[in-house]
Amino acid sequence: xxxxxxxxxxxxxxxxxxxxxxxxxxxxxxxxxxxxxxxxxxxxxxxxxxxxxxxxxxxxxxxxxxxxxxxxxxxxxxxxxxxxxxxxxxxxxxxxxxxxxxxxxxxxxxxxxxxxxxxxxxx
Length: 123
Description:
Layout: H1 2-18, E1 20-28, E2 32-41, E3 44-53, E4 61-71, E5 74-84, E6 87-95, E7 106-112, E8 116-122
Antiparallel strand pairs: 1-2, 2-3, 3-6, 4-5, 4-7, 7-8
């Protein structure tokens, strides 16, 4: 009697473990590189965007920085009047959502210094 019960518990544990996955998407434009990495478990997703200015250094400053991310869950916008540093990190988390699919690119538009704008895709 114990053996079938243990088999069912083992099978359920394996199936639940298989639904967890990690994704990594990246892309770039002329001046920017971007990455998105996330852990997905069922309909829960915890991720991080990382954007880096290619010609920047730690003392790089941007005026009126705006990052617009269009993913499967809508639009995320980050605005800063002054941003110091060549990298920008944005956390993302959702539960009960449509999780990111690796086969659907994420559109990113970055505007900075009131005169520059570039769009690229994370794939």
